What does this fold into?
Amino acid sequence: MNAPTPQTPVTVHTFTQRLSSTRRGGRLARLLAVERLQAWQMSPAVTERAEQIVAEFAANAALHGRVQGRDFQVALTLDAATGTVRIAATDARGEQLPLLCRDFETSVDSESGRGLLMVAALADRWGTEPYPSGGKTIWAEVGPWRHNDKTPAPGREPEAGASLCDCVSEGGLEPPRPIKGTSTSS
It folds into this structure.
């Protein structure tokens, strides 16, 4: 007699919203993301990290990815089995891929140039993907375990209270590189 093997159902929750490519749209993206993460009962640590990433992605989509008459899209996907949240922002400017810190020569009082360093520090993984009809999607994944137990996220080096300063090597500042072209399988 063959007994059926019990299987744990994989539950994936999604949230997607199109927003105007304006500062107001960027602010609304952050507020909606926090509301959705709280509804999914995510931990405050994950919610705070995700909120900062959504804010950065939305600001970049409104500022750098804006095309007159085109919106940007924010999507959250929660894999309930692992507790990992995938954050994605899609805009219409596929030819303008994000740059990693502009050679790290941002002046101390500059108001820009540090956003993707922050994303690299907060996310377990991040990268970009082309989006049909000339756009791009920038994404990041945030899991519940990374900052709590000092275990490295896959493909990451900094440890022991990881901070941006941990990315400094003998050759200069070297943040974790994005993973390009990773598929979004659910």
Notes: The CA atoms of residues 54 and 154 lie 21 Å apart. The chain has a mean pLDDT of 74. The first helix runs from residue 23 to 39. Strands lie at 12-19, 72-79, 84-91, 125-131, 135-142, 168-169, 172-173.
